[in-house]
Design brief:
Layout (H helix, E strand, L loop, with lengths): L1 E2 L15 E4 L9 H8 L5 H9 L4 E2 L2 E2 L11 E4 L12 E2 L1 H10 E4 L3 E6 L15 H8 L7 E2 L8 E7 L2 H12 L4 E9 L8 E3 L2 E5 L5 E5 L7 E9 L3 E8 L6 H8 L13 H10 L6 E10 L2 E6 L4 H14 L2
Helix pairs in contact: 3-4
Length: about 325
């Protein structure tokens, strides 16, 4: 088990003294409020913003607004703030730490690109001590800034971007908002997807079951959502498609596939009896949804990242080819 070194934790208790913290170069460009929220784990947001408004927080000895962009070397005065609850150090299993190390496809001070394994949440929470981002911070304690650029569902595998600098996070978020990042997924769906179905336009709405589980459905009053599709390979009972989400709604590709009458195999949330039977026949034990390609710009340079299907997903396609042909 990998445990966060105590000296890297920043705990501000109600009886602590005022602290003077220096902004790392990697954090340059981050807003003051976001910087404080990253460092003051357990302190309610309302208390952080109150401290800024009252002038309890100072930057280089002067009052500052929440939206101030910090620079490397800035000194931030942090007053004693009460935590909502004590935080246990995050613990990452050696299994996931090793899986993540071997899944890194690209690594420099600005950006890490990971071929995320299925079954790994990007964030800890809901009984998960450490997700991918927490595990990365434990693996690389010397890196002062590591933040997710975007997210993948826990059961989805494939390409994930982690910014190593606040300025890089802003640059990539700008591209995400302007459709400047081209994301392509591979999905194996039940049935024969018709070639003329090039896109699904269906608004999506979140809802909760009585158990508390949160799901997504197509609803006229939901948020606009569009996914473009292209057939990659077709068998008698299944189709391998490429999905390009134009919008970025929760579970968008999964719900749009089901809405089109072709649930993704291995999807425990948005499936059908036919899809479940085919999933069992293929011996598939995971969601067949994989972030296979990313195109974006970083510092003026065009980047194209690709991640092939893992062994289990490839095996499902081989089994279909052997038993059903194309």
């Amino acid at each position: 088990m990998t445990q966060l070194p105590k000296e890297t934790e920043i705990n501000i208790h109600h009886n602590a003294q005022v602290q003077l913290l220096t902004v790392a170069q990697e954090e340059a460009g981050q807003r003051l409020d976001n910087w404080l929220l990253r460092h003051l784990h357990g302190v309610p947001k309302t208390r952080v913003y109150k401290a800024i408004r009252k002038g309890e927080v100072r930057v280089n000895k002067g009052r500052a607004k929440a939206e101030l962009r910090l620079e490397g070397g800035d000194v931030v005065r942090v007053p004693p703030l009460r935590q909502a609850a004590s935080r246990e150090p995050a613990i990452a299993s050696s299994h996931w730490a090793e899986r993540i190390r071997t899944a890194i496809l690209f690594d420099d001070p600005d950006l890490i690109v990971i071929n995320k394994p299925t079954g790994l949440a990007v964030h800890g929470g809901s009984g998960i001590s450490a997700g991918l981002i927490e595990t990365l911070r434990l693996i690389y304690p010397e890196r002062k800034y590591l933040e997710l650029v975007h997210r993948l569902d826990r059961d989805t595998s494939g390409l994930l971007l982690i910014a190593g600098r606040a300025s890089v996070l802003r640059e990539l978020h700008t591209q995400l908002r302007s459709d400047g990042i081209d994301k392509r997924y591979n999905a194996l769906v039940a049935g024969r997807w018709a070639s003329h179905v090039k896109h699904v336009d269906a608004p999506l709405e979140k809802y909760a079951l009585a158990s508390g589980e949160r799901l997504v459905k197509v609803a006229s009053g939901g948020r606009k959502a569009r996914t473009e599709y292209r057939v990659l390979e077709r068998w008698r009972s299944a189709t391998l498609v490429e999905a390009k989400p134009i919008t970025g709604r929760t579970h968008q590709i999964r719900v749009h596939c089901r809405h089109a009458g072709h649930p993704i195999l291995g999807d425990a949330k948005y499936s059908s009896e036919v899809a479940d039977q085919l999933t069992a026949t293929l011996g598939l034990n995971r969601l067949f949804l994989h972030a296979a390609s990313l195109r974006f710009t970083l510092g003026g340079e065009q980047m194209h990242m690709q991640a092939p299907l893992d062994g289990e997903l490839q095996a499902a396609c081989v089994a279909l080819s052997r038993t059903q042909g194309s």
